[in-house]
Amino acid sequence: MPVTSQLFRGFPRAKLWGSSLFPCQRQLPCCPTSHRPTLSQPHPIWPTAMPVRGYRRSPDLHSYNLTPPQVNSILKANEYSFKVPEFDGKNVSSVMGFDSNQLPANAPIEDRRSAATCLQTRGMLLGVFDGHAGCACAQALSERLFYYVAMSLMPHETLCELESAVEAGRPLSPILQWHKHPNDYFTREAQTMYFNSLRTYWQELIDLSSPGESLGPREALLSAFKRLDSDLSLEAQVGDANSFLHYWVLRVAFSGATACIAHIDGSDLYVANTGDGRAVLGVQEEDGSFSAHTLSNDHNAQNENEVARIQEEHPPSEKKTVVRQDRLLGLLMPFRAFGDVKFKWSIDLQRGVLESGPDQLHDNEHTKFIPPNYHTPPYLTAEPEITHHRLRPQDRFLVLGTDGLWETLHRQEVVRIVGEYLTGVHQRQPLTVGGYHVTLGQMQGLLAERKARASLAFQDQNAATHLIRHAVGNNEFGAVDHETLSKMLSLPEELARMYRDDITIIITQFNPHVVGHQRQGGES
Amino acid sequence: MAFLGTAVRKVASCRPALSPLCRSATTSRRYSSSSEPTTEKSVPYENVLKVEEGGSGPTKPLPKSAEAVVIGGGSLGCQTVYHLAKMGMTNVVLLERDRLTAGTTWHTAGLLWQLRPSDVEVELLAHTRQVISHDLEQETGLETGWIQNGGLFIASNKQRLDEYKRLMSLGKVYGIESHVLSPAETKDLYPLMNVDDLYGTLYVPKDGTMDPAGTCTTLSRAATARGATVIENCPVTGIQVSTDDMGVKRVKAVETFHGTIQTPVVVNCAGVWASKLGEMAGVKVPLIAMHHAYVVTERIEGIQNMPNVRDHDASVYLRLQGDALSVGGYEQNPVFWDKVSDKFAFSLFDLDWDVFMQHIEGAINRVPALEQTGIKSTVCGPESFTADHKPLMGEAPEVRGFFLGCGFNSAGMMLGGGCGRELAHWIIHGRPEKDMYGYDIRRFHHSLTDNNKWIRERSHESYAKNYSVVFPFDEPLASRNMRTDPFHKVLTEQGCVFQERHGWERPGWFNQDGAAPVLDYDWYGAYDISKNQNYKYNELLGKEYTFDYPPHHNVIKNECLTCRHGVSVFNMSYFGKFYLTGPDAKKAADWLFSADVNKIPGSTVYTCMLNKRGGSEADLTVSRLEAGTANLPLAPESNGDAYYLAIGGGVAEHNWNHIKTVLQDEGFNCQLTDYSEDMGMISIQGPKSREVLQEILDTDLSNDAFPFSTHKVCNAAGHKVRAMRLSFVGELGWELHIPKDSCLPVYQAVMAAGAKHSIINAGYRAIDSLSIEKGYRHWHADLRPDDTPLEAGLAFTCKMKSTIPFLGRASLENQKAEGLRRRIVCFTIDEKVPMFGLEAIFRNGVPVGHLRRSDYGFFIDKQIGYGYIRNPDGGVVNADFIKSGKFTLERMGVVYEAKPHLKSPFDPSNNRVKGIYPDNYHNVYKANAQ
User: Fold this and answer.
1) B180-229 confidence digits (pLDDT tens)
2) What are the PPM-type phosphatase domain coordinates in residue numbering (chain A) (predicted)?
3) Could you say which DSSP state residue B135 is in?
4) What is the mean pLDDT of residues A339-363?
């Protein structure tokens, strides 16, 4: 136990509470079926590979020098853009489109993203998911959460129609139109199980509502989050006859993930957040500059309300142990998450489920590990905080990002970079030395960066890629330089996680001609 | 493990901590600038004349009338009013809209360099220095704030150092101490300087730094003490202009909110606001306002007492500011100030750092300590700039009595003293004392001075090239092809490399491998305008960026020698072509021209036009026309007293205005009409020119029938032309003045007839060489308004033996009686080194003058130079003085023995223009004819 704590303290940036709890990363491909070319070479877990000392001594790692095209191909590998189709040159949607991208630090990446248009109801769903202790939970969220939201939003009649179609064996009208990158994962084997769980949910929704009723967006989001997390837990407890699926549902439940999603319908923007992802609105001021308006609260130790909430939920005797070293029970950085049944189930349940589980679980010492001071579970919830914002014409874009973004760039800087990128204003804004002591040398560096920025923006066709370039490549002057980019991107897999986290970003651009001009509840 | 954690933390913590100040600096620009402390914008001077409470109304009552009203209380206004008072015109008023220096003077860097690549400028600067460092203190007992910390010019290549050595040689003539230092010597002088990339430096110990507020206050005190009135807080609202019975517009009065001052003279010293003031009187003031900036640093240890630095190659200057530096420069992409505001007293712009960026690099490279030095403040203010980076001075062509003293291209403090004095002289005596043609508004053709594109493009180029090496044969690339003659296209196709003069494209030389047309201005790629690719003309210009003979020296040689031995054709269409007619034309011609032009009709006379002091305002040919009816453009209606004036095209506007002014002053009733653009002119010169022309002209070209210095209207290949037997190159030859539409057919006929004599096109580079070889003058080079024809060896153009009075005659008579104190001399040297003018002339080791003009004489195969020499004892310069001396010329610090010539070394007996050639030519002719 003392050894383990020592280990955890050693990785302040790693939010996982035991990255090697499940050996899946190195023994199996992350997902049962992957449409992505798998990272199939052995992935040494990094505590065993310790070249850090060497890194510090000689900064000339062999792989340092990437050419600008190499850098670009790394940065652009996962970029995706979606533009809402226009009709007769007019875009009547409040969303013009979105740019998304992700840059792995973990191997394989534990972040996931989703984007979809609701087809049975109005609106668009966008979300970023940050997995820990493996990618399984985040993967499940990315495939399932939006269905749960869509169901929750459906009026009683639509749900009934759906149910009767399934009953009669008729084909279902599609519920979501996904906007996926070809590299986005898909768990084919689990689809039947997922569908059955979902159907159970909608049947309950039908039972609980009466004709003419539907949940409002706020209730719908809340219900969807809670229900999905509960389903993840139940599926793990029930298990599956198929040993592979049985193993999969346990991996999903024992790993964890945060979720930050947005539902945009006309001028109504709802953000539901569980964990430390973040949604920030880019607001263009009258002078053309951009300011950040945050639409979510981080659920972690930096949020006093969260600390107070957790302490209140447990007996005073646990006050000192429930949050230690800025972590839940001294282990987990996010204070809300999906999965993570080790923080939710009783000790008996955990032991019971593990003992009846597939053999793979027994091979690993860490599976038997119970968090310290584990007295009054559950310690963790997937219940989201929900924010409603009515879009105004000056609200130009929404940035959804996992904490990998927010810990490298201040939200104000994020909004400025994106704003300048989208408006094409890069260099012409005058630079002033606002009363700070600046040397000529510093000024020179600053100006060189400004000049370079214009050409960088030209390189990127995707706002999220542009933002990642800044998040990773900013040098000591807060400026992108190729050398820094090259160093950060050429770090060996086992080292990358020490310098940066997985970064996932979705930037949604609003249509200023539509938002703010719609009648409330009017057709979009 | 613990160690690993530290490592990670270290990496993590260093990233957000990245220089928070710079992050703030980047972000602060976008958000609520009001919440941030505003940028420190202030000049580095202790004393600024700004008065916060801003009294309303003028500081003194306005007089009802004045001899002159100077408008604008900056450097030029103060200097002009001071010099006017000092020269005895005491009923003068200076009106300043706000407080003295409030416009642009208050934020000027105030540098004074003594050496510039122009003799006149060196003299002007010397006078400024004299006034600021000596005269004012003596007169007022006040200090102007002058600091003599010296000046250091940086050369990072050989050509730059050559240019500095050239300045050093010129400095010797004027007694300006300067030293060429090696990098090591420079390091000793200026220990903080990086000398690794230096070729050498030029150190001028007595250069220094001026204080704008101190200087202007003192000037205003000194002027007031002599009776002038300086009134602040008094904006001018209008200028009254009256038109007299001859239709001449004259200044009548200056209007303000607080009263009107009757005055015949207004001096526009309004800086960037000068164009607006000009509009009030209907006067075009071709200047443009641009942002010009410098940055003041925090204290730098060890910088005290260091000289000011001008790093031309980096386009950067470093001005000493106590224990700190001001860093400024001239960038490729200056910011134009299009909306010149009236309310800008003591105001500055936000510095555009992106534009300024290029200077920081240069400055840090030169003084590496700057990298670690903080920025104290920025100074970015408007300055006025002009098409050729030279000021606008003199009486406006549009309105008599309206004088310009503006457009100083950020050198208003430095040139203020010298120019203030010249302007005062100009106002009081009608003309300046020195040759101010380079600053005279008349140097621009009137069709250009309100052409905004031309002003803007040309000003940009001059600004961006301000610190470029001044090479002798450089040409502008901005706003070319403004005025083209009928031959332009066909000559371009034949490889003509054009020169720009007065807006005209005139042939320079003929490139042997293809056309090299002048393209539209590409702004040197600034402002994201794409640069002209494969720009042959620009490449050819670049090849002449040398102080050696250019690579096409031999091409010019061929053009010259073909003219000397065969026949060449010169397109001189850019010539000014005026007719002087009317009842008083004869009287006017007698008075205007130094030579007697009233020979029989059909004669052509080379003459000067002089000013009151006998200085040569122009040289030209005047042809007395036969009586007859009008056949324009070839002939105006003539009663026998009509004159055709042919004038070098580059100075046409100046000649025009000189003549107009004299006609107005004397009240002559005659007309001057301009047919410059209605006729082209080619000159066919060389021993074979007669044979060629005889084929196409329907008139006898023999010496008897068509002697030298005569003209006739005749038919050329079926087109009426005026043929004039003249030469600018010293050969047998004729000029054909041809109506525009007939130009090309006549040219083609000449070329066809000349083909069997191997006729070629030649340009002005050849004319320059041929004419200096022959000993002909070029106005504004070896003949200037500060040279009399007697000094210039042109006594033969003066009708001194007659009794006819003419303008300047009295002065010439005095000079003749007293003997010449200075005189032009021709020198040849044996070494084959190019000279360009400004080389120092030594007689027995003592500097006695400098070359005005130099070129290579291909026929005599020697470098030739002309310069005026004086007797160091102040005595008379006569033939004996010249013959008895041992002369040397100093070029870039190297001394060459020179042979003086009292007569031109080429064809001294003047035979060739008369068609008298040595026998062998005749034999060649005969052989060809058979």
Assistant:
1) 999 999 999 999 999 999 999 999 999 999 999 999 999 999 999 999 99
2) 95-510
3) I
4) 84
Handedness of CA B206, B212, B214, B219 (dihedral sign): positive
Q: Report, in angstroms and rounded to the nearest whole number, the Rg of chain A calculated over CA atoms.
A: 23
Residues 300-359 in B contacting A (C-alpha not used; CB under 8 Å): 327, 350, 352-354, 357
For residues B423 and B412, give the distance between their C-alpha atoms in angstroms, rounded to a whole number: 13
H-helix or E-strand spanning residue B577: strand B576-581
B5–A11: do the CB atoms touch at under 8 Å? yes
Percentage with pLDDT > 90 across chain A: 51
Burial string for B570-607 (b: 16+ CB within 10 Å, else e) reads bbbbbbbbbbbbbebbbebbbbbbbbbbbeebebbbbb
CB atoms inside a 10 Å sphere around CB B357: 18
**Per-residue pLDDT, A146:** 96
For B321, other C-beta atoms within 10 Å of its C-beta total: 24
Mutation test of the interface with chain B: which of A50, A443, A499, choosing the one with the most B Cβ atoms within 10 A? A443
Asked if residues B251 and B427 have their Cβ atoms less than 8 Å apart, the reply is: no
State the DSSP H helix or E strand holding residue A1, giving kind and residue range, or none if neither: none
Q: CA separation (Å) from A239 to A230, A233, A354, A382, B91?
A: 14, 10, 11, 21, 110
Give, in degrees to the nearest 5, the angle at Cα B15 between B14 and B20: 90
Contact across the interface for A10 and B2, Cβ inside 8 Å: yes
Best of B33, B34, B296, B354 to disrupt the A interface (most A CBs within 10 Å) is: B354
Closest-CA distance, A451 to chain B, in angstroms, reads 8
Inter-residue contact A402 to A502 (CB < 8 Å): yes
My answer on whether omega of the bond before A108 falls inside 30° of 0, hence cis, is yes
The dihedral over CA atoms of B383, B389, B391, B396, expressed in degrees to the nearest 10, equals -110
- Cβ-count burial of B705 within 10 angstroms (0-12 exposed, 13-18 middle, 19+ buried)? exposed
How close B368 comes to chain A (CA, Å)? 9
Could you give the angle at which helices A440-459 and A411-423 cross, rounded to 10 degrees? 60
- Asked if A477 lies within 8 A of B22 by C-beta distance, the reply is yes
With b for 16 or more beta-carbon neighbours within 10 A and e for fewer, the A429-452 pattern comes to bebbbbebebbbebbbbbbbbbeb
Question: Cα separation of A225 and A52, whole Å?
Answer: 40
Gap from A417 CA to chain B (nearest CA, Å): 10
CA A129, A134, A140, A145 torsion-angle sign: negative
Identify the CA nearest to B664 among candidates B654, B675, B672. Answer: B672
This model's pTM is above 0.90? no
Task: Write the residue in A291, A442, A447 that is nearest to B357 by C-beta.
Answer: A447
Distance in angstroms (rounded) separating the CA atoms of residues B868 and A514: 81
DSSP per residue over B440-500, as a string?
BGGGS-TTTTT-HHHHHHHHHHHHHTTTS---TT----TT--SB--TTHHHHHHTTEEEEE
In a 10 Å sphere around its CB, with 0-12 CB exposed, 13-18 middle and 19+ buried, how is residue B329 labelled?
A: buried
Q: Is A32 a residue whose pLDDT tops 50? A: no
Shortest CB distance from A289 goes to which of B1, B30, B37? B30
On whether any CB of chain B is under 8 Å from the CB of A434, the answer is: yes
Residue B929 contacts A where some CB pair is shorter than 8 Å: no
> What is the spatial distance between Cα A213 and Cα A156, in angstroms, rounded to a whole number?
6
How far is C-alpha A140 from the chain's CA centre?
A: 12
Question: CA nearest B81: which of B250, B229, B238, B271?
Answer: B229
- Distance of alpha carbon B537 from alpha carbon B514, whole angstroms: 11
**Would residue A183 be called left, alpha or beta, if left means φ above 0 and alpha means ψ between -120 and 50 degrees?**
alpha
Q: Taking CB atoms and an 8 Å limit, are A440 and B26 in contact across chains?
A: no
Reported as a single tens digit per residue, the pLDDT across B76-95 is: 999 999 999 999 999 999 99
- In eight-state DSSP terms, residue B681 is E
Q: Give yes or no for B36 touching A (CB within 8 A).
A: yes
